[in-house]
Hints:
The protein has a nine-stranded parallel sheet with strand order 7-6-5-4-3-2-1-9-8, with helices on one face. By secondary structure, the protein is an alpha/beta fold. The chain has eleven helices and nine strands. The radius of gyration is 21 Å and the shape is globular. Bound molecules: flavin-adenine dinucleotide. Flavin-adenine dinucleotide binds near residues 70, 98, 172 and 181. The site of flavin-adenine dinucleotide (FAD) has 24 residues, from strand 3, strand 4, helix 5 and helix 6.
Amino acid sequence: MTHSSSQDTLARWASAQRIAPLPARDGAAPPAISFEFFPPKTPALEAQLWACIGRLAVLRPAFVSVTYGAGGSTQERTHATVLRIMRETQLTPAAHLTCVNAPRAAVDEVARHYWAAGVRHIVALRGDPPGGAAYAPHPQGYAFAADLVAGLKRIADFEITVAAYPETHPEAASPEADLDNLKRKLDAGASRAISQVFFDNAVFLRFLDRARAAGITAPIVPGIMPVTNFAQAQKFCAACGTSMPHWMADMFDGLDDDAETRRMVAAAMAAEQVRLLQANGIDEFHFYTLNRPDLTYAIARILGVKPAAEAG
Length: 312
Ligand SMILES: Cc1cc2nc3c(=O)[nH]c(=O)nc-3n(C[C@H](O)[C@H](O)[C@H](O)COP(=O)(O)OP(=O)(O)OC[C@H]3O[C@@H](n4cnc5c(N)ncnc54)[C@H](O)[C@@H]3O)c2cc1C
């Protein structure tokens, strides 16, 4: 490179737009966080889950939720995992429960068991049929999540969380109809929504504006998924209507055989996402952990959440 061209470079850098740094967190309270786990299928996955819970428990999440497999396929494993969390940890479990493929009486029975066991928080969902089939309500079932919320409230005074879709649920008649549905779920007794995974913060923040304009006041907590396996995330996102920005594909391009770099890229990407949301005033975060603790742990630290022993 010639002398004159490096002078030009510096002139170009010096005249570039200066972007303000993210605000320092000095003195700000750490955000409330929560974690999602899935119920394990094998003894090895069970050991992985419990190691994950052990690692993340010290961050004192507001609650930890356990998913319900497609079509209610994990009913027993979800139940067992939630009850073990109750028995063996100080954590507050939230049990996911769906309407799909079950009569109301069976769903109610599961809910009554939870209440009797001391479980007070349910994540109430419609659910999806297994194998990508089209959804049809069970003839004697709860048709939609709003019906399930109302049914649960009739059983007991559960704390209820529901799902929200910043990019609109794929089966919704329109974004407005989907927002009306979210409002119905909250009006039926839910006190919080957790968002479907998203990667474009602008989409999420605009969704919050639309929700406010529609009269929604309950928190819509961003669902954060640190992505290390881009190909797998692409499949998942295509099915649930989450768009993946092209810059994400670029960042993972060529890293298929380089797991270590993928993890570093994933951590940096998720850290940037949550820091920007935090700078925009969001102070609750839900992490889709996929039963792997490390990225979630690091990102929670970046947000200012410290393990119990270190927190002042
Ligand atoms: C945070 C979170 C956690 C999840 N956990 C699980 C889980 O553990 N297990 C699982 O199987 N799935 C889970 N899912 C996926 C969820 O089950 C699917 O996205 C499902 O397709 C929709 O569930 P819902 O509760 O949002 O449904 P609903 O709120 O019932 O909405 C479903 C669709 O129906 C439309 N709709 C609602 N009411 C009506 C009506 N009266 N007439 C016509 N249309 C209507 C809505 O606009 C929407 O398009 C989760 C999703 C999220 C975001």
